[in-house]
Design goal:
It is a single chain. Helices cover 79% and strands 0% of the residues. It has ten helices and no strands. It has helices at residues 7-30, 35-50, 60-91, 100-115, 118-129, 133-157, 161-168, 174-207, 216-225, 229-258.
């Protein structure tokens, strides 16, 4: 079967490809992306990694305390963020919210919260409530409100609308339709997104130590600045092991909640 392309469509394809090429050339030039520089830097990185061994295990106890503090920040920030995003996400779903101004306002709120990095939010909250883990919790809460709100609302928009319509046709009101027609469909993804962002929050919380928000990030930044490479390796190992533990625990809980089967 012979396939023919209209001249206009072919021109659009060529224009799109040229546009993509121009964007990448612009990005490469502006970001100084240079594979040769990367290759030349490999020996320096290798030397840095060699000087990190063996890890300094004498600070493990202190790091575990700091990792616990970081995990506490992540748990509270994720909990508050998810709790706020869950009800607001229904206002940002087209198939649930028929009033466009409410829909657009909620989406804009999510964009504003998500568009500002956690470390910037932490800087603002440090000036508000002082140093310590609490500004980190607030920063994670605001950022996750935007991130989870976006994912939750898009998940709601992707539900099987026939099931929702069938429940509504039985005379169920809007709340009942959401509870019986939408929530059962989105629950697995909501749980998955929340636990994923718990891991994300732990990683983000390590960086918040830069602005005095506490946690293991303070230990990492201090070790890097003092060129204590072996302590840096120990800190990184504790961070990786903690994230791995969170991943396994979240997988176990997620599977039990969704299917009742152990992960």
């Amino acid at each position: 079967m012979k396939i023919s392309f209209k001249p206009g469509r072919k021109f659009r394809h060529v224009a799109v490809m040229l546009g993509i090429v121009v964007i990448y050339l612009w990005a490469i030039e502006g970001s100084d992306t240079n594979p040769i520089t990367f290759i030349k830097g490999i020996p320096f990185m290798a030397d840095y990694v060699v000087r990190m061994f063996p890890p300094d295990l004498s600070i493990t106890g202190r790091l575990l305390v700091r990792a616990g503090e970081t995990l506490q920040m992540a748990v509270m920030g994720t909990t508050f963020g998810a709790a706020l995003a869950l009800p607001l996400s229904f206002f940002a779903a087209r198939n649930v919210m028929p009033y466009r101004p409410v829909y657009q306002t909620t989406r804009t709120l999510f964009d504003a919260c998500r568009g500002v990095n956690e470390i910037v939010w932490a800087l603002l909250f440090v000036s508000m409530v002082g140093l310590g883990p609490f500004p980190g919790v607030l920063a994670l809460t605001v950022h996750l409100l935007g991130a989870l709100g976006k994912y939750f609302s898009e998940t709601i928009e992707a539900v099987n609308q026939e099931l929702v319509t069938a429940i509504a046709s039985t005379g169920a009101n809007r709340i009942q339709t959401i509870y019986y027609g939408i929530l059962p469909q989105v629950k697995p993804l909501f749980v998955g997104y929340t636990f994923y962002y718990l891991e994300h929050s732990f990683r983000a919380a390590t960086v918040l130590g830069l602005v005095g928000a506490g946690g293991i990030g303070i230990e990492l930044i201090t070790s890097v600045r003092l060129f204590k490479n072996q302590e840096v390796l120990t800190t990184l190992l504790v961070m990786v092991l903690t994230v791995t533990a969170i991943d396994r625990l979240s997988a176990f809980i997620r599977m039990r909640l969704i299917t009742g089967v152990e992960a």
